[in-house]
Amino acid sequence: MEYAIEFEHISKSYTPEEVVLSDINLAIQQGEFVVLLGQSGCGKTTLLKLVNNLLDFDAGYLRIHGKKLSDYNIEELRRSIGYAIQQVGLFPHMRVWENVSYVLKLQGVDIQQRKERAERLLELVGLKRELLMRYPRQLSGGQKQRVGVARALAANPSIMLMDEPFGAVDEQTRTQLQDQLKQIHRKLGQTIVFVTHDIREAFRLGTRIVLIHHGSIVQEGTAEDLVFRPKTPFVRSFLGRQGFSALFDEAVLDKLYERVGQGKQDMQACLALLEQKKSQS
Ligand SMILES: Nc1ncnc2c1ncn2[C@@H]1O[C@H](COP(=O)(O)OP(=O)(O)OP(=O)(O)O)[C@@H](O)[C@H]1O
């Protein structure tokens, strides 16, 4: 099978003292929404940046659509992969439509088509067309992040890399952005690799969650796999109560915790009940 992205025995260090990624093996299918989850400094961003070659790896193989990274023209590869980051990085002297369609300009697309595409993309990310002529400084934080996502989608990429793209906005806007992204993914079916340290965000978005710790993949699977079948004590403690509360109503959990605390129900029975509840929902 040809995967969208394949990491095989990938290792990476910035300095001789610290191994940042160690023996990473991960194969991502076309259309998957994979979330790289882990604490600050565990290596998520580094792993993501290997895909569009913003960073080099030291050992192993990386294939994009079955072809080795080294066999690509790197500029072309970068332009064909969408990339959205928390800092957004819009060009301050360009209007919104120019920012959104910049990659198309590089590809030689004419101005009329670029304007039309920018307009359609703005609509897709839930922004009004009036914003097309604004400059980035005239946008709110949430609007900037939406423009960032629109820009990443401009070249109709089959792969989107997203590094905490909704990190700098309030909770409500963040939830809206997440919902919108899920809709876009359902509609366009790109392969998305999304970095976050937020368990709730990971569970809302990912069809597969890859949990990273100290530069290694410690477990991958669905949210339910991680919560109900943690492979190591680290996975169990990392997810903790947050993992359960990302999957269930707080009121349900409170009641169960109370019953376990009072000795009315044992922990195993409680977990089995939750898992059953989840599979029925
Ligand atoms: N340019 C660099 N030079 C040296 N060390 C670096 C460099 N960039 C990152 N590192 C180190 O590599 C490790 C992994 O960093 P990385 O940014 O990949 O982590 P992360 O999981 O994305 O963290 P965060 O969630 O805080 O962004 C950290 O220990 C970091 O200090």
TrEMBL record:
SUPFAM superfamilies: P-loop containing nucleoside triphosphate hydrolases (SSF52540)
Residues in ABC transporter domain copies: 5-239
GO molecular function: ATP binding
Gene3D superfamilies: P-loop containing nucleotide triphosphate hydrolases
InterPro entries: AAA+_ATPase (IPR003593), ABC_SmlMolc_Importer (IPR050093), ABC_transporter-like_ATP-bd (IPR003439), ABC_transporter-like_CS (IPR017871), P-loop_NTPase (IPR027417)
Keyword line: ATP-binding, Nucleotide-binding, Transport
Pfam families: ABC_tran (PF00005)
PANTHER family for the chain: SPERMIDINE/PUTRESCINE IMPORT ATP-BINDING PROTEIN POTA, SPERMIDINE_PUTRESCINE IMPORT ATP-BINDING PROTEIN POTA
Protein name: ABC transporter ATP-binding protein
